[in-house]
Amino acid sequence: MPNSSRLWLGVFLFVMGLFCLALKFEVTITEWRIVQRLIFWFGVAAFLLGLVGYTAYQLRPEIFPQHAWYDFIEHRDVTLRLVDQSLIKVESWEIEGLTQNALFIHPAETGSTTLVYPVMIRPNTTFAADIALAPGSWQLPGDGVTFSLFIEDRTGIRLLYSLYVDPKHHQQDRRWIPVRVNLEPYSGELVRVILSVNSGPAGDARNDWSGWGNPRLEQPSLP
């Protein structure tokens, strides 16, 4: 049952409970008016609380608990036919005590590998993932990877996020790096979400074991 339906069912049962109690104890007219006032003010409070919650949901959806409605790892078959499948796999990585499933993508010899996902974007959607290079690559030769997120709609392709990560030479990159991108401007549109990895600035693709940790599309849940 949706959360809103449960809320109104609870209100209905509460009001009916008060009515039944009034009948059982044969309250006087004055007492019944007090019960009516209680019901009225309870309704006003419930309305105001719902209004505040709805307004917060529209203006600050990120403050609500998020649930994933699209998993890029589960849906990877829609894009694998477009790339060299030997460059793509799913692995479990532990970094700083946090274990995640990583969508492993290795840049091709041309310098980049791109995965394309057609998705109908829901309201208040956020792209979420944690990016990293596999711990086993940190001590090996190479110059890191550039992670990029693009959106393609009917007007063209836009770069929404890009970050160069090089844990081989930068200690601060030896971690899961959170990525959060608001996709609300594309709500209701059928778009292509594009995940791309490129070899580092020197074009050195050796040991570029890049991964998108639990890449997903999220939407806030009402409590």
Q: Top keywords for this entry?
A:
single chain; 223 residues; four-stranded antiparallel beta sheet; 38% strand
What report would you give on this structure?
This protein has helices at residues 3-24, 29-59, 77-80, and strands at 66-71, 88-95, 98-105, 112-120, 126-133, 145-153, 156-165, 177-182, 190-199, 210-220. It is of the alpha+beta class. It folds into two domains: 3-59; 66-220, Jelly Rolls (Sandwich). The strands form two sheets. Strands 1, 2, 3, 5, 8 and 10 form a six-stranded antiparallel beta sheet that branches. Strands 4-9-6-7 form a four-stranded antiparallel beta sheet. Strand 6 (145-153) and strand 7 form a beta hairpin. The radius of gyration is 26 Å and the shape is elongated.
